[in-house]
Protein backbone atom coordinates (compact mmCIF):
# COMPACT_ATOMS: atom_id res chain seq x y z
CA UNK A 1 0.00 0.00 0.00
CA UNK A 2 1.70 3.24 -1.11
CA UNK A 3 2.05 6.39 0.94
CA UNK A 4 0.10 9.26 -0.61
CA UNK A 5 1.66 12.73 -0.56
CA UNK A 6 -0.67 15.34 -2.10
CA UNK A 7 1.21 18.36 -3.43
CA UNK A 8 -0.12 21.43 -1.65
CA UNK A 9 1.24 23.65 -4.44
CA UNK A 10 -1.81 22.80 -6.55
CA UNK A 11 -4.30 23.75 -3.83
CA UNK A 12 -6.29 26.99 -3.93
CA UNK A 13 -4.11 29.28 -1.81
CA UNK A 14 -7.06 31.55 -1.03
CA UNK A 15 -8.49 28.52 0.79
CA UNK A 16 -5.30 26.96 2.12
CA UNK A 17 -6.76 26.29 5.58
CA UNK A 18 -9.60 24.31 4.00
CA UNK A 19 -7.11 22.35 1.89
CA UNK A 20 -5.11 21.44 5.01
CA UNK A 21 -8.28 20.33 6.81
CA UNK A 22 -9.26 18.19 3.83
CA UNK A 23 -5.85 16.48 3.82
CA UNK A 24 -6.03 15.97 7.59
CA UNK A 25 -9.45 14.32 7.20
CA UNK A 26 -8.28 12.15 4.30
CA UNK A 27 -6.08 9.05 4.11
CA UNK A 28 -3.17 11.16 2.87
CA UNK A 29 0.05 10.22 4.66
CA UNK A 30 2.26 13.20 3.85
CA UNK A 31 1.91 16.87 2.95
CA UNK A 32 4.21 17.41 -0.06
CA UNK A 33 5.53 20.98 -0.09
CA UNK A 34 7.31 22.22 -3.22
CA UNK A 35 9.76 25.10 -2.84
CA UNK A 36 10.95 26.72 -6.10
CA UNK A 37 13.41 29.58 -6.43
CA UNK A 38 13.02 30.72 -10.06
CA UNK A 39 16.67 29.80 -10.64
CA UNK A 40 16.97 26.02 -10.45
CA UNK A 41 13.50 25.77 -12.00
CA UNK A 42 11.66 28.43 -14.03
CA UNK A 43 9.03 29.15 -11.41
CA UNK A 44 8.70 30.55 -7.88
CA UNK A 45 6.39 28.98 -5.29
CA UNK A 46 6.55 29.57 -1.53
CA UNK A 47 9.01 29.44 1.33
CA UNK A 48 9.42 29.04 5.05
CA UNK A 49 6.58 31.32 6.17
CA UNK A 50 3.94 29.27 4.33
CA UNK A 51 5.46 25.99 5.54
CA UNK A 52 5.41 27.31 9.10
CA UNK A 53 1.69 28.08 8.77
CA UNK A 54 0.95 24.67 7.23
CA UNK A 55 2.89 23.04 10.08
CA UNK A 56 0.48 24.61 12.59
CA UNK A 57 -2.46 23.13 10.66
CA UNK A 58 -1.37 19.48 10.57
CA UNK A 59 0.34 16.74 12.54
CA UNK A 60 1.00 14.75 9.39
CA UNK A 61 4.48 14.29 7.93
CA UNK A 62 5.68 17.43 6.10
CA UNK A 63 7.74 16.41 3.07
CA UNK A 64 9.59 19.51 1.79
CA UNK A 65 10.99 19.27 -1.74
CA UNK A 66 13.59 21.94 -2.48
CA UNK A 67 13.86 22.79 -6.17
CA UNK A 68 16.44 25.45 -5.39
CA UNK A 69 20.12 26.22 -5.75
CA UNK A 70 22.36 26.30 -2.67
CA UNK A 71 19.87 24.53 -0.37
CA UNK A 72 22.47 24.39 2.40
CA UNK A 73 21.94 28.12 3.01
CA UNK A 74 18.32 27.54 4.05
CA UNK A 75 18.26 24.08 5.64
CA UNK A 76 18.21 25.41 9.21
CA UNK A 77 15.26 27.69 8.42
CA UNK A 78 13.28 24.85 6.86
CA UNK A 79 13.97 22.72 9.93
CA UNK A 80 12.74 25.55 12.15
CA UNK A 81 9.65 25.95 9.95
CA UNK A 82 8.71 22.33 10.69
CA UNK A 83 9.96 20.18 7.82
CA UNK A 84 10.05 16.48 8.71
CA UNK A 85 11.96 15.57 5.56
CA UNK A 86 14.08 17.81 3.36
CA UNK A 87 14.73 16.68 -0.20
CA UNK A 88 17.44 18.34 -2.28
CA UNK A 89 18.26 17.85 -5.96
CA UNK A 90 21.40 15.97 -6.90
CA UNK A 91 21.80 18.41 -9.81
CA UNK A 92 21.92 21.39 -7.40
CA UNK A 93 24.37 19.89 -4.89
CA UNK A 94 28.03 19.53 -5.92
CA UNK A 95 28.77 18.43 -2.33
CA UNK A 96 25.78 16.13 -1.89
CA UNK A 97 27.15 14.09 1.02
CA UNK A 98 27.68 17.31 2.97
CA UNK A 99 24.10 18.38 2.20
CA UNK A 100 22.70 15.06 3.42
CA UNK A 101 24.74 15.17 6.62
CA UNK A 102 23.56 18.72 7.29
CA UNK A 103 19.90 17.74 6.88
CA UNK A 104 20.27 14.81 9.26
CA UNK A 105 22.17 16.89 11.82
CA UNK A 106 19.15 19.21 11.94
CA UNK A 107 16.87 16.33 12.91
CA UNK A 108 15.15 15.86 9.54
CA UNK A 109 14.98 12.86 7.25
CA UNK A 110 17.08 13.28 4.12
CA UNK A 111 15.86 12.89 0.56
CA UNK A 112 17.58 13.30 -2.79
CA UNK A 113 15.66 14.12 -5.97
CA UNK A 114 16.66 13.26 -9.55
CA UNK A 115 15.46 15.06 -12.66
CA UNK A 116 14.17 12.93 -15.57
CA UNK A 117 17.53 12.94 -17.40
CA UNK A 118 19.61 11.98 -14.35
CA UNK A 119 20.52 8.26 -14.10
CA UNK A 120 19.90 6.47 -10.81
CA UNK A 121 23.36 4.83 -10.74
CA UNK A 122 24.76 8.21 -9.64
CA UNK A 123 23.25 7.47 -6.21
CA UNK A 124 25.41 4.36 -5.68
CA UNK A 125 27.78 5.98 -3.17
CA UNK A 126 25.15 7.95 -1.22
CA UNK A 127 22.14 5.62 -1.30
CA UNK A 128 22.86 4.06 2.10
CA UNK A 129 22.75 7.53 3.70
CA UNK A 130 19.27 8.40 2.42
CA UNK A 131 15.74 7.99 3.71
CA UNK A 132 14.03 8.74 0.40
CA UNK A 133 14.87 9.04 -3.28
CA UNK A 134 12.46 11.22 -5.23
CA UNK A 135 12.34 10.52 -8.95
CA UNK A 136 10.90 13.38 -10.99
CA UNK A 137 8.55 11.88 -13.55
CA UNK A 138 8.07 15.27 -15.23
CA UNK A 139 10.45 18.17 -15.74
CA UNK A 140 10.33 20.15 -12.48
CA UNK A 141 8.82 23.59 -12.14
CA UNK A 142 5.21 23.22 -13.25
CA UNK A 143 2.20 21.10 -12.36
CA UNK A 144 -0.27 19.23 -14.57
CA UNK A 145 2.40 17.68 -16.83
CA UNK A 146 2.23 14.21 -18.35
CA UNK A 147 4.11 11.33 -16.73
CA UNK A 148 7.34 10.40 -18.54
CA UNK A 149 7.01 6.64 -19.25
CA UNK A 150 10.77 5.94 -18.97
CA UNK A 151 10.42 6.69 -15.24
CA UNK A 152 9.07 3.15 -14.78
CA UNK A 153 12.44 1.72 -15.86
CA UNK A 154 14.25 4.05 -13.46
CA UNK A 155 11.99 2.93 -10.60
CA UNK A 156 12.75 -0.73 -11.33
CA UNK A 157 16.49 -0.07 -11.50
CA UNK A 158 16.46 1.87 -8.24
CA UNK A 159 14.29 -0.76 -6.53
CA UNK A 160 16.86 -3.35 -7.51
CA UNK A 161 19.72 -1.27 -6.08
CA UNK A 162 17.86 -0.78 -2.78
CA UNK A 163 16.72 -4.40 -2.42
CA UNK A 164 20.10 -5.87 -3.37
CA UNK A 165 21.75 -3.94 -0.54
CA UNK A 166 18.81 -4.48 1.85
CA UNK A 167 18.45 -0.75 2.48
CA UNK A 168 15.53 1.03 4.11
CA UNK A 169 15.08 3.73 1.46
CA UNK A 170 11.73 4.84 0.07
CA UNK A 171 11.16 5.58 -3.61
CA UNK A 172 8.97 8.64 -4.15
CA UNK A 173 7.50 9.58 -7.54
CA UNK A 174 6.60 13.16 -8.35
CA UNK A 175 4.83 14.32 -11.49
CA UNK A 176 1.93 13.21 -13.64
CA UNK A 177 0.64 10.59 -11.19
CA UNK A 178 -2.99 9.74 -12.01
CA UNK A 179 -5.56 7.12 -11.08
CA UNK A 180 -4.84 5.53 -14.45
CA UNK A 181 -1.06 5.09 -14.10
CA UNK A 182 -0.59 4.87 -10.33
CA UNK A 183 -0.84 1.06 -10.18
CA UNK A 184 1.92 0.60 -12.77
CA UNK A 185 4.10 3.02 -10.77
CA UNK A 186 3.55 1.09 -7.54
CA UNK A 187 4.04 -2.25 -9.31
CA UNK A 188 7.42 -1.01 -10.60
CA UNK A 189 8.53 -0.51 -6.99
CA UNK A 190 7.46 2.96 -5.82
CA UNK A 191 6.60 3.55 -2.15
CA UNK A 192 5.33 7.16 -2.17
CA UNK A 193 3.07 8.86 -4.73
CA UNK A 194 3.04 12.63 -5.00
CA UNK A 195 -0.29 13.71 -6.48
CA UNK A 196 -1.14 17.32 -7.10
CA UNK A 197 -3.58 18.05 -9.88
CA UNK A 198 -5.07 14.55 -9.61
CA UNK A 199 -6.15 15.31 -6.03
CA UNK A 200 -6.92 19.01 -5.99
CA UNK A 201 -8.68 19.14 -9.37
CA UNK A 202 -10.83 16.18 -8.37
CA UNK A 203 -14.54 16.62 -7.67
CA UNK A 204 -13.99 14.54 -4.53
CA UNK A 205 -10.36 14.84 -3.36
CA UNK A 206 -10.84 12.65 -0.27
CA UNK A 207 -12.23 9.83 -2.41
CA UNK A 208 -9.43 10.25 -4.96
CA UNK A 209 -6.81 9.95 -2.20
CA UNK A 210 -8.58 6.83 -0.93
CA UNK A 211 -8.52 5.31 -4.42
CA UNK A 212 -4.78 5.98 -4.74
CA UNK A 213 -4.20 4.55 -1.27
CA UNK A 214 -5.99 1.29 -2.09
CA UNK A 215 -3.76 0.40 -5.04
UniProtKB/TrEMBL annotation:
It catalyses: D-ribulose 5-phosphate = D-xylulose 5-phosphate. It comes from the Bacteria. The active site is at 34 (proton acceptor), 174 (proton donor). GO terms for cellular component: cytoplasm. Substrate binds at residues 7, 65, 174-176. Pathway: Carbohydrate degradation. Pfam families: Ribul_P_3_epim. Its EC number is 5.1.3.1. A divalent metal cation binds at residues 32, 34, 65, 174. Belongs to the ribulose-phosphate 3-epimerase family. This is Ribulose-phosphate 3-epimerase. The gene is rpe.
Amino acid sequence: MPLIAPSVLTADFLRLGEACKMLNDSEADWFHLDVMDGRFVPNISFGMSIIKQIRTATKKFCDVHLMILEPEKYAEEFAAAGADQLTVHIEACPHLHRNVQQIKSLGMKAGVALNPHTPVFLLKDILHELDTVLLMSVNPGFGAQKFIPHTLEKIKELRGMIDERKLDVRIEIDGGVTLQNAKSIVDAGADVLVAGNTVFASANPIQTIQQLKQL
